[in-house]
Amino acid sequence: MDSQFNEWQQAFKKATPKIDVDALIAQVNQSRRAEKRKAWADLVIGFAVSCLCLFMLLTHASEIGEKILFALLTPIPLSVGVWAFMLRKKQWRTSTLDVESLLAYKHLALQVQMRYWWVNLLGVTALFTAVLGVLLTRLALGMSWHLWLAQLGVFTAILGVVIIKYTHIKRNFPRRLEEIERLRTDE
Questions:
Q1: How far apart, in whole angstroms, are the C-alpha atoms of residue 91 and residue 146?
Q2: Could you give the CA distance from residue 106 to residue 176 in angstroms, rounded to a whole number?
Q3: How many angstroms separate the Cα of 22 from the Cα of each of 6, 19, 27, 31, 104?
Q4: Residue 96 φ then ψ, to 5°
């Protein structure tokens, strides 16, 4: 009987996760709250940038090319904001009932973060390129260009921040995946 009890006890110890489950749950809950805040911020910022594009279309675009450009650009930031909101909403609603689900949530959150910043990098680069094109066209045609230079400065700063953030996330991505896998094998 004692040997069978010892076997059960050893089997129980092997089956018991070495992960601090309470800490993992706290991390996931904190991550969910942060995702909700970020989701709403994405939506509001996308709306604001689309409104800015519409404002530029209605007040500052004087040539047909500029009007077409801003007409095409206006829905993009809002679309990206809605996409990011839905992506984050799907993530924060993911069910996490056991340790494996919690680790899967962390893995998914990492993948979503990479995809999110990649799409942001593409979108901001497109907007930067469009503003640069308008600025260069206006310079070449001898038209007023000061407003466009100021906008290019703003987009340059935004693009710089997005590049730094994406590079940081991409560089740390493999290490963070390894951490999640290490937790899985420590179970």
A1: 43
A2: 10
A3: 28, 9, 9, 14, 16
A4: -135, 90
**Radius of gyration of the chain, Cα coordinates, nearest whole angstrom:** 24
Is the sign of the CA dihedral 169, 173, 175, 180 positive or negative?
A: positive
Neighbours of 116 (CB within 10 A): 21
Calculate ∠ Cα 7-103-100, nearest 5°.
Answer: 40
In tens digits, what is the pLDDT along the chain, a chain of 187 residues? 577 767 766 665 565 556 666 777 777 778 778 888 988 998 998 899 899 889 888 988 878 878 888 888 889 889 988 988 888 887 777 665 667 777 887 888 888 889 989 998 998 898 899 889 888 988 998 888 888 888 899 889 999 999 999 999 999 999 998 988 887 776 5
How many residues in the chain?
A: 187
**Using alpha carbons only, what angle is made at residue 129 by residues 109 and 82, rounded to the nearest 5 degrees?**
35
Instruction: Kindly state the tokens that stand for 66.
Output: 């500029």
